[in-house]
Amino acid sequence: MSNEKVLVFGHKNPDTDTICSALVYADLKSKLGMNVEPVRLGEINEETAFALNFFQAEKPRLVENVSNEVEQVALVDHNEFQQSVSDIESVKIIEVIDHHRIANFQTKEPLNFRVEPVGCTTTILHKMYRENNVEITKQMAGLMVSAIISDSLLFKSPTCTDEDVEAAKSLAEIAEINLDEYGLDMLKAGTKLENRSAKQIISIDSKEFPMGEKLVEVAQVNTVDVAEVLARKEEIAEEINATIESKNLEVFVLAITDILEGDSTILTYGNGVAKVEEAFDVAVTENTALLKGVVSRKKQIIPALTKAIG
Amino acid sequence: MSNEKVLVFGHKNPDTDTICSALVYADLKSKLGMNVEPVRLGEINEETAFALNFFQAEKPRLVENVSNEVEQVALVDHNEFQQSVSDIESVKIIEVIDHHRIANFQTKEPLNFRVEPVGCTTTILHKMYRENNVEITKQMAGLMVSAIISDSLLFKSPTCTDEDVEAAKSLAEIAEINLDEYGLDMLKAGTKLENRSAKQIISIDSKEFPMGEKLVEVAQVNTVDVAEVLARKEEIAEEINATIESKNLEVFVLAITDILEGDSTILTYGNGVAKVEEAFDVAVTENTALLKGVVSRKKQIIPALTKAIG
Lengths: 310, 310
Description:
The structure is a homodimer.
Chain A: E1 6-9, H1 16-31, E2 36-40, H2 46-54, E3 61-62, E4 72-76, E5 92-98, E6 112-115, H3 121-131, H4 138-152, H5 162-175, H6 179-189, H7 198-201, E7 206-211, E8 214-223, H8 226-230, H9 233-247, E9 251-258, E10 263-269, H10 273-280, E11 288-291, H11 297-309
Parallel strand pairs in A: 1-2, 1-4, 2-3, 4-5, 5-6, 8-9
Antiparallel strand pairs in A: 7-8, 9-10, 10-11
């Protein structure tokens, strides 16, 4: 292993898994001798801030580009280039640890690439500590279990696997937390939307997906009060339509996910709204529809949209 | 793990690593409870036939399509769709074990995807036996070490890592072979080109690579007598030019690799020959050039061509 510096980061519009995975990867790899610094590609959301604060972890440094500082990077929690740093094609990717579909990714040379169909990237990182016999500190356990709670919505999401649940239980012990109590507190911290602008609401956790020749954007917010978000429909619609125009999107879907009920209400705009209806077999009325039992963008929303549009 | 049948296979124009990896993956995974059958996408070459015969292993069944028999597949030793079965996009890929660059690969859903920058796929499979505490039989050890010898040209290739060498030594003990003696016998078995047609010579081990908007094909043959191959230049050129025309290739490179010297002589045709000169900083005279110290398509030829063309 060369001692040249490596930056590690997750996707744009970082969520708790992306931020915690970068911090945890850096901890593990630096203990294995790598010269690595965790960085982030955007602002920390309130759920992530709650977790970092609870476990007294510093947030990673914010960067806009990476090729100005390093030649080598590692990616966690994403692989699609359009979700990564803008100059990703100017650096060498030495490793990817992820749990998403693989697409829009390529390298000139072989690398370490590990994707597993589990609910959370830190579930894979947890396994890597064990494989390498590296001890897990209370702080790192706290970050890993926070990411699992976040990605699985406290085990409610269909993306959640037995491996995630087992890892979370084991990590909760090391982190000395009560899973349900800490988990609900953390998730609720992420639902405070009243101080957010409409623009923030549609970009806190938003990702773009090329489907066939079209580009689709799907944003998601968690809440315990869907009506509160819907009351701001007019200003949110304005921001969504501006985004559709500037990015030439086929369709924009905002999923407002009720973390207590385990359902999502969507707001959707663009030429592709009929395809959204087809994808979920629902009628979209005044740009809104309730998707019963839908909480996972990755496992439920994207595959259905890809089938209808791509 | 569902008990639905899975087919596992390596790339088109199978080499020893691709065939042995499919057999070994099926052995390991069936011991772990998967309903899996190894298959192949093309004829076995003479080097591979030598290894299978030596270790009394049956060659995998030949298939042209897979979606007519199964819904799920696993890929070994490749990930790029153009190197895979023609109907790869009609089936679900549940796992990939590979050691090549990643490109032209995508899925709708997350999967198990493990790529490591080692010299041979069976080096990764060897690790997976250990991780899963599955005993390695003499036959499987023989197939794995044969693949490592093949891909590393008996450890001469720059793709060969310490991990490959260690795995080969450990596997040679289980397989009860002398590495150098068996290795040279096996490699020499693959160099018998006198009974091969020119068409076979350029397709025994040939792969296509999209580079930018262009398509490039690079074939490789091993020999202990380069002059013997060059004596047939005229008929080989005819086949190469026919291939260029039918596939609309930018350039075709045939690397004739001297396994004793560790050099390659290339024969190259097409519009992109000037780019080949640029890639390797050599003069191509009458469509031929000597590439000193070049034995690896993956590590030496493809990156240089991609830089010049892509």
